[in-house]
Every structure is written in structure tokens, then in C-alpha cells.
Known about the structure:
Blueprint: E1 7-13, E2 33-34, E3 38-39, H1 41-50, E4 55-60, H2 65-74, E5 84-88, H3 102-107, H4 110-116, E6 120-125, E7 128-130, H5 134-144, E8 148-156, E9 164-168, E10 174-179, E11 193-204, H6 205-217, H7 225-235, E12 239-243, E13 260-262, H8 266-274, E14 304-306, E15 310-312, E16 315-316, E17 321-323, E18 326-328, E19 331-332, E20 337-338, E21 343-345, E22 348-349, E23 354-355, E24 360-362, E25 364-366, E26 371-372, E27 377-378, H9 382-388, E28 390-391, E29 397-399
Parallel strand pairs: 1-4, 1-6, 4-5, 8-12, 14-17, 15-18, 16-19, 17-20, 18-21, 19-22, 20-23, 21-24, 22-25, 23-26, 24-27, 25-29
Antiparallel strand pairs: 2-3, 6-11, 7-13, 8-11, 9-10, 9-11, 28-29
Amino acid sequence: MRSLPNVLAIVLAGGEGKRLFPLTEDRAKPAVPFGGSYRLIDFVLSNLVNAGYLKIAVLTQYKSHSLDRHISQAWNLAGPTPQYIASVPAQQRRGKRWYNGSADAIVQSLNLIYDEKPDYVIVFGADHVYRMDPAQMVEEHIAAGLDCSVAGIRVPREEATAFGCIQADGMGTITEFVEKPADPPATPDDPNMSYASMGNYVFTAQALIDALLEDEKNEDSAHDMGGDIIPYFVKRGQAHVYDFMANEVPGSTERDHGYWRDVGTIDSFYEAHMDMISVHPIFNLYNQNWPIHSTDDSNFPPAKFVQNGIAQSSMVAPGCIVSGGTVRNSVLASDAHVADGATVEGSVILPGVRIGRGAVVRRAILDKNVVVSDGAIIGVDRERDEERFKVSDGGVVVVGKNQKV
């Protein structure tokens, strides 16, 4: 039997998520609830676990309590085995400072790599919505024989200006890596498409250590994985692009193959939810061949609809009660209640929300435990909404955690 390489996965989960405020006012971005029954971090952890990678360190920093609790409860690998999913806080191991960038986060956690002695290190972000088999990327990294691999997703060139972009030759070797270029480089086989970096990397372990230690000495560096470490490998001809479209996830359909969303803004967060609720969803949560794992709803009973309460083209999580209300084109997370005569339309409702009698909620995101009083109206009068709440550029109203409307 062929022995498998020793792989350590590091998940970068320390970002503040300022553009998702107020959803990140009280929690780290990877801990933001998503899709009714999940948190954002569940997607990357599910991808790693489904691929068989069970040595995972999650590097946390800002407002990490709910994230740490979620990992300990939902991702506990019990038993006397070498497998673990561990939340690792900033520890100031290399001086009295917190993380000064994603590369510095790994430098300050090099003890994890030294202790594990892996052959390869996976470094993935914690706040994207997608399915991927990381084992296929690791296999291609090994076959390419280079020190670094960067996952690239194909996007139209005119849209690639918002991303870190990859220029590669016909063999897949990266020749240039540029952040948000005005003229994005084309892929080798299609002049109309560009490779955008997904923020997912695979490294040969010793090469990563060498790069991080050299970067640590550079006072001009921002100590960022995408901005500093990847260019380090590109300059040496040691970076390879992994085409995300080549990744074949069991159970995926032609419609959701290659789906990936950076939900870093309120509008992208909202749109990713809308992607899931169509009859033939762009992102299919119901693929049991590659499940997205979570246990947030384990203690709730099934959803209940009484007094002619209805939900159309919507996803309704366990514990919800729709009593005489109407829900359309929406996602209701666990333990949300919609009362008699209330209307919820085109909205994302997070756990524990209460929507009172006759209330109207349209094109809105209601954070955890929000209470909408009887007859209150959200998402109808933009001018009034802007006086009370955050309204995104796309017109999505966001009501922060624990507020009463």
C-alpha cells in the first residue's frame, strides 16, 4: 500500500471582517452564521475533513470566543488518535505583538509545523463558500515538483480587477502574481479569462518555513501570504497554479461545479444566500456525497408551520415556527419565529430571530436574536432604514445582533 504524505492543514481565521459589519461586531468573520444551519468556517473544515485531512490548526485572533466554542463543540474529534481540529489563539511566541498579517500568523505558530513535521502544509482561508477536494490539489502540487501551489479560479478579465491575479505559462508555472491589476493577465488557454487567487495554498513544508523566516526579517514586508509570500516563490520560479475548475467533487452537478464565493461584503453575503434557494440552486447544500458538516441545530426539533403559515422558495432550519406568516425567497436559520400576518421576503434571518404580528421584512439580513415588533416594517422605506440601520450599496438592510425594532 502506498503511504500517504504527512499533511498539516492551517486555516487562517483571524480576520476582523470589517466589511461585514455589523455581522462581525460581536464575532469573528469565520463564525458568522450562514445558510441557515452553518457558520462560514464549516465550509473549509468540511472540505478538509471530507478529503481525509484530520490534522487541522485554526489560527484565531479577533473576537474569537464564539468561533472557539463552535470548533470545540461542532468539530470535536474525540478519542486517543493523532487526529485533531484545534483552535489556536495568537500566543505572542515571537515577541509582545499580535499578528501583523497572515504570514506573521503562521510565523508565530511555527511550533505547530515543527511539532507535526509534515511533508506538506495546506494554508486555506476560513471565510469562503465553496466545495473543493484539497487532496486533488495536493496531488497536483506533488506532481508539479515546485515548492508552492496557488488555487486559481477562472473569472472574466473585466471582473478580475478586484482580485489578486495569476499569470502562468502553459505548464502552470506562475510567472507573475499581481494584486487588483487594472489590466488582469489572461489564462494561457483563454484570452477572455483570468486566474483569480482563491487564497488557498499548498506548500512543501521546509520551503514554507524558509520563506516565512526570510519574510520575518524584511522590515518593508506587510507579512501577508498573498502579497509577500506568494511573490517570494514566484520570483524563484517555484509557484504553480492549480485550476479550481479541474477539481472534481463527488456529487457535484454541472450547475454548481466550480462554485466559489468570497462573502466579504454584505452584498456578497446576501447574494450567496440567494444562490441557494432556487429550484436548481447554483450552490447545492444537499450534496450528501460531499456534505457540509455542522451541529449548530442538533438540539432543535423540526421546523413547524401552523395557522396557514407558509414558506415558498425558501430554506427553513430546525426549530423554526411559521405561525400564520408568509416566507418567500428567504433563508431562516434555527429557532426563528414568524408570527401571524407577518411577511418575510428576500431576506436572511439568523438564529433566534422573532418577527411579530403583521411585521414586514424585505431584502434584509437580521442578525441573531433580533426582535421585530408587531407591525414594524424593514426594507420598504430606504430613507427611514438608513436612519436606523446599515444599508449596503445594493440596498440590503442589516439589523445588528440583539436589536429590537
